[in-house]
């Protein structure tokens, strides 16, 4: 039996995934959570086969949470769930321990296929995401694909290019340094980079900075 736990802060998503999976033989959704902290508490005493993990959560960063769970419980397989098909998110999830990545509009058949593949020790990505990563690796999208940024992310990106520190950015935009750090992390994820130098380079390449 494949025991599945789902973490997502949207009730409709939780109910939809449960409905798709609970009708399947050999797959059972044992628990659902809407907060990362509750999942971590649960994992202290229980060990599911697979976690379907939303990467955008109200109380934690899904990518960081993926890394934490992988480090603490390497026997648990994680499949990332997201509305975002940006390659930056995909690469960061896989880089931090996820064995698969699915979009939230995935079909029932693909969801089941992914769970079974990951349970057997394989890494699973939908064909459309594999093609996207492959195209990027050959440079097809490196200069043409532009991540969708929020107004605040654009403001912070500009400030970073001006070499402002997190404290200076916070004062200029009237936000906390913690908020700045969170936006910086999101920018790194969206661009698929690991540091500020990589972020600036990608932003210039894509024409987001002058």
Automatic annotation (TrEMBL):
Gene3D superfamilies: 3.40.50.2300. Keywords: DNA-binding, Phosphoprotein. The keyword Transferase does not apply. GO terms for biological process: phosphorelay signal transduction system; regulation of DNA-templated transcription. CDD domains: LuxR_C_like, REC_NarL-like. Pfam families: GerE, Response_reg. One of its GO terms (molecular function) is DNA binding. Residues 142-207 form the HTH luxR-type domain. Residues 3-119 form the Response regulatory domain. InterPro entries: CheY-like_superfamily (IPR011006), NreC/VraR/RcsB-like_REC (IPR058245), Sig_transdc_resp-reg_C-effctor (IPR016032), Sig_transdc_resp-reg_receiver (IPR001789), Tscrpt_reg_LuxR_C (IPR000792), WalR-like (IPR039420). This is Two-component transcriptional response regulator, LuxR family. It comes from hydrothermal vent metagenome. The lineage of its organism: unclassified sequences, metagenomes, ecological metagenomes.
């Amino acid at each position: 039996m494949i025991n599945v736990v789902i973490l997502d802060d949207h009730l409709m998503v939780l109910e939809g995934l449960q409905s798709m999976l609970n009708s399947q033989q050999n797959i059972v959704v044992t628990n659902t959570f809407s907060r990362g902290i509750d999942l971590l508490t649960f994992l202290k005493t229980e060990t599911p086969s697979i976690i379907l993990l939303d990467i955008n959560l109200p109380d934690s960063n899904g990518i960081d949470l993926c890394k934490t769970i992988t480090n603490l419980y390497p026997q648990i397989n994680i499949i990332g769930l997201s509305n975002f098909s940006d390659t930056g998110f995909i690469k960061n999830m896989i880089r931090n321990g996820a064995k698969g990545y699915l979009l939230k509009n995935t079909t029932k058949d693909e969801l089941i296929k992914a769970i079974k593949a990951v349970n057997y020790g394989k890494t699973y990505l939908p064909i459309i995401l594999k093609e996207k990563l492959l195209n990027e690796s050959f440079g097809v999208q490196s200069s043409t694909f532009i991540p969708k940024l929020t107004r605040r992310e654009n403001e912070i990106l500009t400030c970073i290019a001006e070499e402002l520190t997190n404290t200076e950015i916070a004062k200029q935009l009237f936000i906390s340094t913690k908020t700045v750090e969170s936006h910086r992390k999101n920018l790194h994820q969206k661009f698929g980079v690991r540091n500020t130098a990589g972020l600036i380079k990608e932003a210039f390449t894509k024409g987001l900075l002058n």
